[in-house]
Amino acid sequence: MKLLVGPPASGKTTRLLERAQETLAQRKRVWWIGLPHQRAYVYRRATERGGVIGLEVMSFQRAYYRLLTSNYGLKPILTGPGRVALVGEALRESDGCRLPGPGEARLFARAVAEAKRFGVRPEEIPTSDLEARRFVQVYRRYEELKTAWGRWDYDDFRLEALRLVDSGKYALEDGLELLVVDGFRELTPIEVGFLNALARRIQVWVALPEVWGNLEASETLSARDPQVRTYRAPNPVSEARWVLRSIKRDLAEGMNPLDLAVVAPENRQAALLTLADEYGVPLVEQTPKTAADTPEGRLLLSLLELPDYPTPSKLLAIPELLPLGRAALERGLAGREPIGRLAAELGLADFWQSWMDRLEPGPDTLRWARGLLDSLPQIHGARRELLLERAKEAGRIASGPNFRPWWAALIAETYEPARPPGGVALLTPILASGTRYKRLYLTYAVEGAYRVGEREDYFIPEEDRIALETLLGQIGLPRRFQGRDRLLLAELRARAEEVIITYPEADQERQNVPEPALVQGRAPRLAAVPPGSALEVGEGIPYRARLSPLTLGNATVEELRYYEDCPFRFWIERRLGIHDPPLWWRNLVRELRQLQRLSEARFETLKTRFAEAAGWLERFRERLFSLTFGLALPTQGEPQARIDAALNRGGEVSLYTFSAPGTVEPKEFLRGRWSELWLAGYLLERNPRQVRSVRILVWPVLGEPVEAYEAPITLENKPVKRQIDYRAMKVQEVLERFRKGDVNPNPGFRCRECGVRDVCREGKIG
């Protein structure tokens, strides 16, 4: 097996296409294994100079099917929803006939899939606690049920294909000469074993961004600096509108829509698609859809969920219940009892009750499901059979009222085959992998928006997993925390010949910090672009009041952040004495700040005054007694950063910020805040002899303190140093404006929740 190694945009795909073209020119066949969404892109690249014969682009799974089919080694497939259903059945048996919820079964199914993906059998899984032992029991029973049913899941195809090629007793399809693997950031040991075994018969070339495991590079390509431009927008709406105007300009200048793409976090895509209609931009969503996203699936889900919690949207989805749905929407009603009273008021009580009775499954759930589908003429043909198949799987586990949520959950697990129409691709970070464009717009590049989602497994703790470099020589599960974010971010910066990165400085909730790995240095404001929508070509300039400079006094670092959001709101709320609501946990933190140091008498007083936190205070007595509360630095001359609590132990300073009970993600809580990192930079730069490193911890009241960064902060840590420098720059920039007394409003999304917008009256302008 030949390994081609090179960073993103180093030309790996181009080099592999050259090798494929050479093989095709000899009238030989080529299998190109890539990511499912890569198929159209590879064909487009391969046919730039004319048609090709003999090239097949497929996924790993498709390659396994083809190889096993050629050697007559297939069994019926157990689909993803079927796996969840079978795991649910195994869970019910292992828990003494307790019916599991679909979410619980999905959690176990994901864990089973991971174990099988790395070739780990039930007996090879570490059982360090009760849940791990329960998982092993469910995994073993799942395999028994699957074998009795006579089916293979997706991972069985992978394992059987590996056994086949390892045996050497297999036949390849005629003319197959070259196998190419491209678009992946890493491979599993089973995939490596499969490719190594095939390499004994045919040429195998694999492209990766880094040397993986103990493999050796056959050829290495050097990095090429991409052409990157960055811009900052005042808010997400301004950013989205600028991107769509820019795309419309690109199309008007003659660019091919297939050469353009937009990357956005998944939760930001709906807004872009909505605005695309206004601008007339052919933005095409590429995210895979499930059966629940089809009209037939939505209709059936509305019916299945209606008895448990009726809402106007569910009622409006059913043609026969439209009058009741419209009335519920007008009055803002939801829930079975309020909807029932409304139906009685409208004279529809009997009709409503007949629907409720009709949606309760009988003893024969499959017969009831078939009857329900027969009563819906909108659901027919292959779609009906697919939904009925999910009902059969749900019937293995649940009956009666529990059947409906299980059927609904399996419908939501059923992915739909789709071929999106041509246009400007709207991609998630994952779907951008393995493809390249002439121009790409990378939007919402703020800290934390683009992550691979590394997190510890529920069943197998990190310490029971093995390092990636030893995975090829030892059976086991790899560690979850591998620092994969850096590969993803480097890839995003190189997905096109020209990458345009944008980020909003603030959104409805907070000030945003740009992602340091994507936005390097201070980005300029959005460049001027011609209007792209009729709504943008308006006449007249709205009136804006201009307020004279005022003396604002002093402000802390965090108050400066709040001031930058809207100077007018900051000034008027300070003037009127408007504060956060006096929640009990905020009062507790305020008391601790005022005490500065705890004594036994003060500690007992706190336990009495805040009885809901008495157990928490006693649990962390020793740590609380060691802390200094209400730290404010520096003492004079510069803006102060106020920290809830701090501790200096041998030159390692720990900064604690208390948060609301239930806060679980420290980086999400700190995102956009200035005080903690600004103070860390101040201590490290001004007191290098007394402070060698800083730890930042978020401490949810009633919970345990959680470190925001994996390692103590030092000035040598360049990514964190960039974040510190950014905050220092923002504090200085805003402080100058604050000292000038500027209190002009800054209208935008923030106006929706502003308590003084009636005084300002500029929210409509924003």
Multimerization state: single chain
Mean pLDDT comes to 89
**pLDDT below 50 for ≥5 consecutive residues: which ranges?**
none
Q: End-to-end distance, in Å?
A: 59 Å
Which term fits the overall shape? globular
- Biggest sheet descriptor: 6 strands, parallel
Helix segment count?
Answer: 29
Percentage of residues in strands: 5-15%
Structural class: alpha/beta
What Rg is obtained from the alpha carbons, in whole angstroms?
Answer: 30 Å
Helix content: 40-55%
Strand order of the largest sheet: 3-2-4-5-1-6
Secondary structure tally: strands: 17
What's this entry about, in short?
The chain is an alpha/beta fold and 766 residues long.
Protein model, in words:
The protein is α/β, with parallel strands linked by helices. It is 42% helix and 12% strand. It has 29 helices and 17 strands. The strands form three sheets. A six-stranded parallel beta sheet has the order 3-2-4-5-1-6, with helices on both faces. The longest helix has 22 residues, at 718-739. It is globular. The two termini are 59 Å apart.
Keywords:
alpha/beta, about 40% helix
List the topology elements:
Elements: E1 2-5, H1 12-25, E2 29-33, H2 39-46, E3 55-58, H3 60-70, H4 80-94, H5 102-117, H6 130-149, H7 154-167, E4 176-181, H8 189-198, E5 203-208, E6 219-220, E7 227-233, H9 236-252, E8 260-263, H10 269-279, E9 283-285, H11 295-305, H12 312-316, H13 322-331, H14 336-345, H15 349-358, H16 365-374, H17 381-395, H18 403-412, E10 424-427, E11 437-442, H19 485-492, E12 496-504, H20 557-565, H21 567-576, H22 584-595, H23 600-609, H24 614-619, H25 621-626, E13 628-633, E14 641-649, E15 652-659, H26 666-670, H27 675-686, E16 693-700, E17 706-707, H28 718-739, H29 757-760
Parallel strand pairs: 1-5, 1-6, 2-3, 2-4, 4-5, 7-12, 8-10, 8-11, 9-10, 11-12, 15-16
Antiparallel strand pairs: 13-14, 14-15, 16-17
Helix pairs in contact: 3-7, 4-5, 4-6, 4-18, 7-8, 9-10, 11-18, 14-15, 16-17, 17-18, 20-21, 20-28, 27-28
